[in-house]
What we know:
The first copy, chain A, is built from 12 helices and 12 strands. By secondary structure, the first copy, chain A, is of the alpha/beta class.
Amino acid sequence: MSIQSVAEKAGVSVATVSRVFNFPDKVTPATREHVERVAGELGYLPNSSARTLRTQRSRVLGVVLPTLLNPVFAECLQGIARAAAAGGYAIIPVTTGYQLDEEQRAVNLLLAGNVDGLILVVSNPATSAALERLRGAGLPYVLVYNRHPEHPCISVDSESAVASAVARLVELGHRRIAMVSGTLAASDRAQQRWRGFLQGMATAGLEPPALVEVPFIETAVDELTRFLEAAPRPTALVCSNDLLAIRSIRAAHLSGLQVPRDLSVIGFDGIALGEDLTPALSTVTQPNGDIGRHSVELLVQALAGGTVPNAGASLVLPHAFRAGESCAPVP
Amino acid sequence: MSIQSVAEKAGVSVATVSRVFNFPDKVTPATREHVERVAGELGYLPNSSARTLRTQRSRVLGVVLPTLLNPVFAECLQGIARAAAAGGYAIIPVTTGYQLDEEQRAVNLLLAGNVDGLILVVSNPATSAALERLRGAGLPYVLVYNRHPEHPCISVDSESAVASAVARLVELGHRRIAMVSGTLAASDRAQQRWRGFLQGMATAGLEPPALVEVPFIETAVDELTRFLEAAPRPTALVCSNDLLAIRSIRAAHLSGLQVPRDLSVIGFDGIALGEDLTPALSTVTQPNGDIGRHSVELLVQALAGGTVPNAGASLVLPHAFRAGESCAPVP
DNA sequence: CTGTTAGCGCTTTCAA
DNA sequence: TTGAAAGCGCTAACAG
């Protein structure tokens, strides 16, 4: 089904058919209706490759994410998908599994794939080769979750978010508070959250706190269990993300500790599922869907204006503390 | 950066450059290396739209899913993404929010988007207009999770899976067992699971059991709470999916019931997160990633052979029961 | 082994 | 308002 066949069947030129689909008002209502009817009968759909080739716009956005297995990113992608659809864009998501080489591969793939722009979360914007390459290519992009002064980023202020989470724990009487995180080196978010933690502890005048770095998510529970069984154990845990918080609660349980009675746990991310858990997860919520939505809007806006989003367009969205039930006063 | 400029700079014809990228062995090693170097210097990447237009193959697969907010589908999509990438395909996912009209819209969008094939979960294959349209279009597709004798489907035998889950509960001494499900009318999976439940109960010679239909996932907990507080309350719940099971446990908690001491709960889906909960979720696991992977492989295989997957290629993958901790004997 | 060339389906001047 | 025609970048005959 090509524009050609529609034109023939309708007895008009291909240019007219094209106009009917692209600039309906540039065509007499009569011919327009006629063409539309014929096109409908033939089940004609404009070929998007041909259109892309001609216009140099694919109306496709690439999305690079670490994984879909963490609901944070699934929620964000959902937000991206909705906003993109609303704006007439399709998306091509690629996951990297937190691996730098996959990050590269993903960007290359998308660069070769004729996407109009890219939304991505990289391990670390300051050092990402993929990001460098992307910037070099001149393709519009927006980072999500990452924060960096030289790139357009949609993020939240993790640092102060974690600091105030610590303050809450301190108010509840906690003094021995530890942080649980994935590998710091692997993620600027983890680093920011750790800094927020240090800052919160310093503000409260508390001891240099412990960091439990959990390199492999699969073994998190084992490591945490070990940590919780060593004395003196903390009375509260601040976790770098909700998945880790959930695993920490599990580890506490395996160590015979009850949350929040014996141990308070705070997560970070605000995944929807946290609210349905028992105890409901106390966490710093990020507007994951909105983060996705804004990234699309920023990109689409720039695309429409023929510009490239720059660092000045960065957005820091509001975070919040969801009280939940996994935090309690020290007895 | 076009093939043309590479050809000129390398002093060869465009055909040669094309061959270097598509059939490297059809070119002298010398020229090949030369062209590759020049292409590298120029940062040349073949334009995929032009290629698609010419070859009529986009190497893109469309994916239609209800939502990414349920980890089942996120896990499946992750499997799809991996397998697709491995096979040299990109994916365009579209979510429908369980809405029939969105299902239509998604299929139309993808049909117009030059995808080579579609992977989809529809509400009900027997009645889906979108599926009908798709079949009419002659585009290769595979259903996932759905089951229907006239379509190629990757699924598990939910019916017997639920039946045997019921049998386990019966072994544990349960007699008053209820099922918790989303709207039956909205999903063939829910219907299959309900049938499995009925069958399991019948086999055990138990009373016509209760069904708690939860139309809106947001209000699930309220409804469940009400149900659990009415007498005589069940001693066990079989839930149509893990999210519902998690909410059921929450509802039990809100009603002052402890799981599994006062109430046993079994889920369905086997989302990874279930293992990290406390109590760990007892559930019927589906190989979500594999379901995705197989759907891609089936599609890619058909695509390679120039055929269309048909109902005969359907796969029923093995399910399993993950014992977890949310089930216990009746005291 | 390499080059020439037609044409995939569409949009977009430019003329009529 | 409509049409003719060029050309987006690539692949695949076909010829050499």
